[in-house]
Amino acid sequence: MTTIDKFLSDIQKTIKYDRANNGGHYDAKRACTKIAELFASNNRNLGSLAVSISDYWLNTYILASSDPASEPSEENIARIKAFQCFVDNDEGADFSVLTADDWETLRDFVDDEAETLDLDVLQNMMSLILDNGALE
User: Fold this and answer.
1) Looking at the predicted structure, is the pLDDT value of residue 6 above 70?
2) How far is residue 123's CA from residue 117's CA, in Å, rounded to a whole number?
């Protein structure tokens, strides 16, 4: 099982457990908050960068959703998957779900945390950001 497969599996478990642990009543906000925490926890080596990305996903796509009770939608799962692929430096990943604003936000987050990141990690992230047009 790849890292991304495990992450996606953990997302599905989080959704399932929220329903099972609450008498069959699903609370999307609670489940998505757990998913955001899972992302941050899986990427502890990135410190506050991981928290910034997960908070961005939660606030921009989940809490601002037109149907928050149905979150995470497949599209928003694809977004957090893309964010995970970004931090994993998966150059072959499908980043098409990320918008220009997403890439600019990632650029700003990475720029803010540049001093605390490993040089190789920083270079890889900046390369992906450049490849996706957020440095032009």
Assistant:
1) yes
2) 10
